[in-house]
Design brief:
Elements (H helix, E strand, L loop, with lengths): L16 H5 L15 E7 L5 E7 L1 H4 L4 E6 L21 E2 L5 E7 L2 H10 L1 E6 L25 E4 L2 H7 L2 E9 L11 E7 L2 E6 L4 H12 L6 E4 L15 H13 L3 E4 L5 H4 L6 E9 L5 E12 L21 E10 L13 H19 L3 H6 L18 H12 L12 E2 L2 E13 L6 E6 L5 E4 L9 H13 L6 E4 L16 H22 L10 E6 L13 E13 L5 E11 L6 H20 L5 E2 L4 E2 L18 E5 L23 H13 L10 H4 L1
Helix pairs in contact: 8-14, 11-12, 13-14
Bound molecules: dioxothiomolybdenum(VI) ion.
Length: 694
């Protein structure tokens, strides 16, 4: 076989790269069907209550206004599983910013002006948006697999009390917003009983299925296209209100309707990372061996939907200890509904745990890398299952070597340049290796080319490219012979790009379809292909972790160097280095991009990103990219990402683990630990802005 066959593992360039950089790649809002109208939503201005009257006369009087939808006249929806999607169905206002009307007009400008002219009257009720650990309505949520609840091992509290070395600390992570570069947008056409939607989504099969249920339309009468998506970070993981509103408006007006959510509305209606209050207690022997680990996470959710930011999930699998208690508690408040944001649970949870581990290292007078090495394990502490592979120790050692950790003087304030205190810190990372069932088909054309069809979504990750590599590998053909079709719900249905599981799920099906097709072709060897070619289709059953005999997780280690300006209070990250063990890396070019992108997001979480729940108004104060500062180039040093190739036979045919999220896990702790090393001061609330530093 020719060399080009080994496409998997090569740094293939993104297939859609030229289309993106030349502006020919079209996103959801860049489709303008004939006769397209434009919608603009009207958010509620009270934090809790009911709409008592809608006066749309001024709006309707504007030339070019097609209509105003409210709970009084909007199409009725079948009760959604996700209460976030029950838009314009009743008068209730569960949180500020909840949509109470939608204006449709001939132009975007008219829609916007008319939305401002809609007068809504409310019966206002008192609201409560303040997250407290002692809130009387706090409870332990219970999901099906028990992740969001409480896990107990041994006598965690008694063992803590009796231990020789202890750390007991409370960490706070503020609300965080996904803010993908491309805002949520949908263009909907409802014609001849068929609904076609271009939606900015992480998974259009789910959008199609949800719209089918909401509007009671057969699935084969709906097509949802998500060809190019400008990021999502979880906020486009499941359908969001915009796509329901666009479809509703198209049905109600008989016109194609385009709806792009304004940036300032995104924090309220597309989900956010819930703030967390996290108390961590660690107890150890004097040699650093952990005796007891207690992690209590309190998060908020809305009144309409339970969502738990599962901050203690990673604590159950990282370090062994004979005693442990990990508890999730959620408080329903009059706040917008939180949802997934990159590494939901693990990102804030490992900030707290890995900060506490650093505090423990200080209490023990032990090197923090060494502390983690002394608490390594081959079996998952909570389930007792063996890890399918775990190379955390290798990541720690390799990271320490590359970073030059052995040069470090452990004393705080030991290094400075003028008014700038320099410090270094580190933290461990982990994220589960997940996969879901997917379908895919492979087709051989008589001209020698191949076509792969799977409704995967490329949210900027390089999914197209990697799936083509997987297919070429399974087929045993050069990469340039493989075409790939993704991003359309008419293709074989597939799970979302989320949970770092896209490549594993879709790739599994693509690999299986490619392998089956290659076998078919092998049997036909010597015969010409029929004019229509030869096909193979598969439906995989990705095994859920609960069904596996192995605990499957990726691991990593983050190292950071910071400079803390003692005059301005500004923290600058000078170096950031990550080493990961995430199975086989299928494409080093796109993988590196995933790792450093997530590390950058972790840098933002540590230093600049954070939102304030305004107690008086009951809404987030930071609603644009000026107030909510996502790291810009000037904030980001040369980030280095490396990996240790793992040969793990218990994952999927490619031997890969997910790589989209682990880069944000622990990064903020590494930076916070570096700030403590630089200054000698331990700060336990993110972000580490100058006002907190000084
Ligand atoms: Mo991600 S938060 O798994 O889309």
């Amino acid at each position: 076989m020719p060399d080009t066959v080994s496409a998997l593992g090569s740094p293939a360039e993104r297939r859609e790269g030229p289309a993106k950089v030349t502006g020919t790649a079209r996103y959801a809002a860049e489709h303008t069907p004939e006769g397209c109208a434009y919608a603009w939503p009207v958010p509620a201005t009270v934090a809790r209550g009911r709409v008592t009257a809608v006066d749309d006369s001024a709006a309707l009087a504007l030339p070019g206004v097609v209509g105003v939808l409210t709970h009084e006249n909007a199409p009725r929806l079948t009760d959604p599983d996700d209460a976030m999607l029950a838009v314009l169905q009743d008068a209730r206002v569960p949180h500020r910013g909840w949509y109470v009307a939608l204006v449709v007009a001939d132009t975007l400008e008219t829609a916007r002006e008319a939305a401002a002219a809609v007068r809504i009257s409310y019966a206002e009720e008192p609201h409560d948006v303040e997250l407290r650990t002692d809130h009387p309505e706090a409870y332990v949520p219970q999901d099906e697999d028990g992740t969001s609840g409480e896990h107990l091992r041994g006598e965690a509290d008694n063992a803590f009390a009796a231990a020789p070395v202890r750390v007991d600390a409370l960490y706070r992570v503020p609300p965080l917003h996904n803010h993908p570069m491309e805002p949520h947008a949908a263009t909907a056409v409802w014609q001849d009983g068929r609904l076609t939607v271009h939606d900015s989504s992480q998974g259009s099969s789910t959008v199609r299925d949800t719209l089918a249920a909401l509007f009671e339309l057969p699935k084969d009468r709906i097509t949802v296209v998500s060809e190019h998506v400008g990021g999502g970070f979880g906020s486009k993981g499941t359908p969001r209100p915009h796509v329901v509103l666009a479809a509703m408006a198209a049905r109600a007006t008989g016109r194609p309707v385009k709806l792009v959510l304004p940036r300032r509305q995104l924090p309220t209606v597309v989900g956010h990372r819930s703030p967390t209050l996290q108390r961590v207690r660690l107890a150890a022997e004097t040699d650093g061996t952990l005796i007891s680990v207690v992690h209590e996470v309190t998060a908020h959710t809305s009144r309409i939907k339970e969502f738990m930011e599962t901050g203690a999930a990673a604590t159950r699998i990282v370090y062994p200890s004979p005693h442990s208690r990990t508890t999730h508690r959620v408080v329903p408040l009059d706040v917008p509904t939180p949802s997934w944001m990159r590494a939901p649970g693990e990102a804030p949870g490992m900030y707290a745990l890995e900060s506490a581990m650093d505090e423990l290292a200080v209490a023990l007078d032990l090197d923090p890398v060494e502390l983690r090495l002394r608490n390594d394990t081959d079996t998952e502490p909570d389930s007792g299952k063996p890890f399918s592979s775990r190379h955390l120790a290798e990541c720690l050692r390799e990271g320490a070597r590359r970073f030059g950790w052995s040069e470090r003087d452990p004393r705080p304030r030991s290094h400075s340049e003028g008014a700038v205190l320099i410090g270094t810190g580190m933290a461990a990372a982990t994220y589960p290796a997940l996969a879901s069932p997917s379908r895919a088909s492979a087709h051989a054309h008589p001209d020698g080319s191949f076509e792969i069809r799977v409704n995967a979504t490329d949210i900027g990750t390089g999914a197209r490219t990697v799936l083509a590599q997987v297919a070429a590998d399974a087929l045993g053909v050069p990469l340039d012979r493989v075409r790939i079709e993704i991003g359309d719900s008419d293709l074989p249905s597939a799970p979302l790009a989320g949970g770092s599981s896209g490549t594993a799920s879709w790739g599994w099906a693509v690999h299986a379809a490619g392998t089956e097709l290659a076998e078919n072709l092998e049997q036909r060897r010597g015969q010409p292909l029929p004019p229509e070619g030869v096909s193979a289709s598969v439906d995989t059953k990705g095994t859920a972790d609960a069904d596996s005999d192995y605990s499957r997780h990726a691991f990593g280690a983050h190292f950071a160097e910071v400079g803390v300006d003692t005059v301005s209070g500004e923290v600058r990250v000078r170096r950031l280095l990550g080493v990961y063990a995430a199975g086989h890396i299928l494409n080093p070019r796109t993988a590196r991009s995933q790792f450093i992108g997530a590390m950058t997001m972790g840098l933002g979480m540590a230093l600049t990103e954070g939102s304030t729940m305004d107690a008086a108004f009951g809404d987030f104060a930071e609603c644009d990219l000026a107030a909510y500062h996502v790291p810009a180039h000037a904030d980001v040093p040369a980030i280095e990402a490396y990996w240790i190739d793992e040969d793990d036979p218990h994952l999927n045919p490619m031997g890969s683990k997910g790589i989209g999220e682990i880069g944000i896990v622990g990064t903020a702790a590494a930076i916070g630990n570096a700030v403590r090393h630089a200054t000698g001061v331990r700060l336990r609330e993110l972000p580490l802005t100058p006002d907190r530093i000084l």
